[in-house]
Amino acid sequence: MVSDADIWKRCSTCKTPIAFTATYYVCSVSTCTRKRSGFAFCSVDCWEAHVPMMRHREAWAVEETAPTKAQWAAEQAAEGGGESKAKGEPARTPTAAPAPAPSVVRRSGGEAEGRRITVPSAAAAPAPPKEILVVASRLKDYIRQRYGMNTSDAVLEVLSDQLRKLCDRAVLHSRDAGRKTVLDRDFDFLNEP
Fold first, then answer.
1. Averaged over 114-123, what is the pLDDT?
2. pTM of the full structure
């Protein structure tokens, strides 16, 4: 049983107490990590319960560590919250743990040791049908004009599979960088020797 003095926040789903320095989870979606919403979940199951309610298309749970009492008091003092005079416990403002790097896992040493996606969204969309991702006429014209050769239709499927693999790598790079938009620099691995 956690005493009221040791409670940092309560789980946004089941209202279970989350103690100072305890592991908790936040949602990867930016609207859920704002100070106004400040969702914190005691378990991945509680995070999963919140996903359909918020209608996230793509989300994952991110493991975090709650601040110490001193860190929380300093954060509240900086925001002007301070102690609750009525109960003598920390003010329960809906703020999440430090927002600069929500997907950084903090180990016992307190240093950031890398980014880790804890769980993909449970309600992931089914895999799209394997369609051709290249414009057949443009590809065939390019090969014909540049090299004077014809192109088999089977090439289109092979190229589309390779494009999917490249896109998958770029998406992981973008996600690791904390973005929800794939940028041209996410394909920089193509230029590596």
1. 45
2. 0.42
